[in-house]
Amino acid sequence: MKKDSRWWEYYVVRYFVGTIFGAGILVVLNSYQDNILHSVLQGDNTPLSSLTGYGLVMYLGLGLAFCYIASAPLFCFHALRGLLDVRGKVTWASLAVFLISVVSILIMRFAFGMTIFDWRTLSLLGVVVVVSIQISMLGEAFWKKLDPVVNFYGKLAVTRSNSKPATQEYVESYRHLREHGNAFGIMLFELILGLSIASVANIYSVALILLAWIAPAVFVWLVATVLEIRMV
């Protein structure tokens, strides 16, 4: 079918610009004097114009990896999109995100003496917000025994099985819209992740940020497993 022969377009739209953008962020991190990753990827004071083919491939490869890591929250949001309430009701998950954010601001300000409107504080707060949204969504999903998620995928499968041209065109339309949204969302998350890495002073803090960033996405495996079990 036509849509099957163009499956690769979604991945190109999603990761092409993000790879280049991610490589650019790594170049900046490598050259930023006060960053823990300074001169790790490339020698100190080495101009970009002197990049060899190997160096360019290295940055693009690492840019793709950085892009993929940065996209972890979107993966979690996509898996749990059945929880989204288009009626605008305020759920306990929304309140949880708000409370976690407020508590984080208070801890940063009074426990660590950080200036609230400093770029370092804001970038770390961005990580807290992104991670807390995922945790709250996962908490809500498992609290409800994944019933809303399972019901959503079941109804979606039935609807997508409709072979009417209008249905297929509708599906193609929102898929294209979402993939472009994914591409812009990935760049935003790359920026948040890059700034947060630049804001810390040691490699252990970098590891902690990356662990917190990708950990919620690991639980999507459980979501997929429950979907599989409920099907048989």
UniProtKB/TrEMBL annotation:
Keyword Membrane included in the entry's annotation: yes
Membrane-spanning segments: 12-32, 52-80, 92-112, 124-143, 183-201, 207-227
Keyword check for Membrane: yes
Keyword terms of this UniProt record: Membrane, Transmembrane, Transmembrane helix
Protein's recorded name: Small-conductance mechanosensitive channel
Organism: Oleiagrimonas soli
